[in-house]
Amino acid sequence: MEASPQLVEYFRTQMRTDPDMASAVAAIRTLLEFLRRDKGETILGLRESLKWATDCLTEVDSSVAVSSGGELFLRFISLTSLEHQDLSRCKKVMEERGELFLEKISLSRTKVAKLCHTFIKDGAKILTHSSSRVVLRVLEKAAAEKKRFTVYVTESQPDTAGKQMADALRRLNVPVTVVLDAAVGYVLEKVDLVIVGAEGVVESGGIINKIGTYQMAVCSKAHNKPFYVVAESFKFVRLYPLNQQDVPDRFKYKADTLRTVSDLSDEHPMIDYTPPSLITLLFTDLGVLTPSAVSDELIKLYL
Amino acid sequence: MADCGAADGPVKKDDIVRAKNEGKELTKEEKQRLRKEKKHQKKQKDEKRPSERAKEKKPVAPSQPVATQPPTQKAPTVLPASAPIPVPASGAPSHSSPAPSPADKPAKSRAEQKAERRARQDADRASKQQSCFSSSKTKAPPSELNPVVKRLPEHVQVDDPAVVKRLAKKLERQQIPLRSDYGYKVSLFSHLHQYSRKAPLTQQLSIPSTVIHPSIVRLGLQYSQGIVVGSNARSVALLHAFKQVIRDYTTPPNEELARDLVNKLKPYISFLNQCRPLSASMGNAIKYIKKEISNIPSQFKEEEAKTKLQKCIDCYINENVVLAAKAISKYAIKKISDGDVILVYGCSSLVNHILCEAYDKSRKFRVIVVDSRPRLEGREALRRLVQRGISCTYVLISALSYILPEVSKVFLGAHALLANGYVMSRVGTSQIALVARTFNVPVLVCCETYKFCERVQTDSFVSNELDDPDDLMVTRKGKTQLENWHDVSSLGLLNLVYDVTPPDFVDLVITDLGMIPCTSVPVVLRVKNLEQ
Asked: Which keywords belong to this entry (chain A) (predicted)?
């Protein structure tokens, strides 16, 4: 077993060197490096240590995407014939598959942006929530296509991530306004569509995202505005929450909070669950999906 | 082979006999009409089409048998020769009488004649393809040529006398008595059977019954009297009865077990259908057994085959009922948290199993059992849960909106899951789902995958079951209110058994394959078909 500080250090370096990379991608890079350095003797031992490594990483960064990305990585590399005699050859095959997986997912954001920017019409007013790199990529692509649009971003307490998003958009010369989280209902009559990212896409077709997304979805349903979600396919996770209470605690709070605080009833959750009935369409690198098609794709990915 | 000219008469009769032997389904008149239209189109268009679509009259995979290659070359020569010849008024029932082409000789071998007949069929089909392109509104080709048309099952066409007559003839052939309908049927449901429990089918059977195996007779009686109820119970009882049948079966001489046993089972299935209409799970079980029987390799000895079949049945029950229940409980228990108030309706064996398992794993919850007349099945569920020590409340369905604000989850069982995501279950289930949705209470349906069926239904009228209307009569304080309902001519009593719940009201379906949304039922069906 690798010592876990090395693992964590590698993960943190990956996140630092490329701040634009999704945390799940960094996690998968780390797992690939872990696979290369692993000195296990059996395939089963290899799988066990990879699972252990994923758990380590989830302790560092408790987002849904890291755990889903790790699980999908493991499935992808072992979903091949591992009937070779030599363990090193098996490892080589797994490493190759891992590289392939990494390549596929690094292209996923571009694919999503290509699919989604056509839904942004000239003169559109867009509302988005907090800071999402995928949404930023989509808006970049739309701006590159010479479309004129304005963006409203929610401030998104408690970490005011919305301000970062606003700065990035200003650099693209897109007119942007930062609004209070409480002003979502007020601003919705002006906007044409709502685009949000997702930290995880669950089996029912709903999403898990920064707290405040559910509110925004309910308001846009009441105003009959389309609610679009952009997410890469490695964020698909095998969870099925029935309501907000049903989301496991390990995703709701930051990793540090989970470690230090014993009574979580005083803590503010960082994410919420948006049910599929409020989502119009999901844009993923597997295509444009309706929420009910997500289960189909999940079955294909996981079974 | 119909030659033109003097040799017509006797040759035509041979043709008719041959047509009958080949089992042509078109009636004389239909064929005549078709031929007339074809003639019209042939005169208008050029028919030199290579008939690649050389399929038989029965809808079959479009592979071209090699034998038709030589005849297709003959086809173009046959057609133009036949065009100017008018259809003889008496008309041979099979095909037009083409003039003998120079290559044909009067004395033809049987193979050549067959080949020529096939050529004519290809020509017919070619011209029919043309008629699709031509703008004229020709009569629709008979449905046998269109393989997609499905026929309605007989048990939902009771108001059509032709269908009823056909059913009666079929039962007569199988020597099974026909059960007669009882009482005034509400007009919206006049297409369904309505039987009386006081007149079971078994009373009309002779003793000893030579046609029907005694265990099947017993099973039929248990179904019709309501002794064996519930989707799982009925399928398992059916499979056990079939095991007994297989045990007592001996292959008659000159027969193959694979084919004869399937034919033996057909009258049993009709009999059981008459006693009580088959459920979706029973239908799937029967399909499985028939497949297993017909897949028995012919070199198996009788004893081997019988043991293999019995093992298959045991395996099926074990996988689809027992192990599935275990898997479903495992997933369902993840959804039951401490302090939950769970609402259940009626008596579902699966839901009861889940609740007992959850209680054994020390989850703290309480249950509200909702019940409805006339079956009052909730009492059975109540008894089972209370015996385990689970704290329960019992209400009738009319108190549903009163009790729902207390409820945190609703667990429902299912009779079948339809291909469009609708849930078919005991009548009253859709009501519960509807009210729960209004109160934002999550509704979870638990269903094994062997109950998934390919049928599509959007309402509860099209295909349902009507129970004995006399069940609705209730005696209180010595008085029975509705006992003379037969005398009131405008009064109808309706005792429905099933209803369908749309997928918008269902939040989650727990199956042995995992937790899926209601809309993913076709995906599961597809995966299962691939596995087979």
From this structure: Cytoplasm, Initiation factor, Protein biosynthesis
Query: Nearest residue on chain B to A245, judged by CA atoms?
Result: B337
Of B409, B517, B527, the CB nearest to A204: B517
Distance of CA A213 to the CA centre of its chain: 14
Q: List, for residues B178-211, the tens digit of each pLDDT value.
A: 888 888 888 888 888 888 888 888 777 776 667 8
CA distance linking residue B285 with residue B278, whole number of Å: 11
Beta strand B475-476 pairing with B514-516 = unpaired
At B140-188, the pLDDT tens digits run 444 445 556 667 777 778 888 888 888 888 888 888 888 888 888 888 8
User: Contacts of residue A245 in chain B, CB cutoff 8 Å?
Assistant: 337
Strands B498-501 and B423-426 turn out to be antiparallel
Please give the Cα distance from A10 to B184 (Å, whole number).
79
Answer for the pair B246, B310: CB distance below 8 angstroms, yes or no.
Answer: yes
Q: What is the pTM of this model?
A: 0.76
Q: State the Cα–Cα distance between residues A193 and A195, nearest whole angstrom.
A: 7
Q: How far apart are CA A134 and CA A116, in angstroms?
A: 10
* B508/A292 Cβ within 8 A: no
Sheet hosting strand B416-417, strand order edge to edge? B416-417, B423-426, B498-501
- B517, A296: Cβ pair inside 8 Å? no
3-state secondary structure of B532: coil
Q: Given A240, A296, A303, which is nearest B508 (Cβ)?
A: A240
Euclidean distance between CA atoms A40 and A98, whole angstroms: 17
Q: Are A23 and A61 in contact (CB under 8 A)?
A: yes
Phi, psi angles (nearest 5°) of residue B283: -60, -45
Structure tokens at B124: 């017919």
Q: Are A49 and A73 in contact (CB under 8 A)?
A: no
For an interface test with B, give the residue of A295, A297, A300 to mutate (most B CBs within 10 A).
A295
Would strands B416-417 and B409-413 be described as parallel, antiparallel, or unpaired? unpaired
The C-alpha angle with vertex A231 and arms to A227 and A235, in degrees rounded to 5, equals 130
Tens of pLDDT, residue by residue over A117-139, are: 999 999 999 999 998 889 999 99
Q: Among B272, B289, B286, which Cα is nearest to B155's?
A: B272
Give the pairing type, strands A200-201 and A207-210.
Answer: antiparallel
Which candidate, A35, A30, A44, places its Cα nearest to that of A96? A35
> What is the ipTM metric for this complex?
0.82
User: CB-CB: which of A238, A245, A295 is closest to B520?
Assistant: A295
Distance from CA of A301 to the nearest CA of B (A): 13
How far is it, in rounded angstroms, from Cα B491 to Cα B487?
A: 8
Helix (H) / strand (E) containing A201: strand A200-201
Closest by alpha carbon to A35, among A84, A69, A73, A62? A73
Distances (CA, A) of B305 to B249, B262, B287, B481: 11, 13, 18, 57
Instruction: Choose among B261, B259, B260, B258: nearest CA to B297.
Output: B258
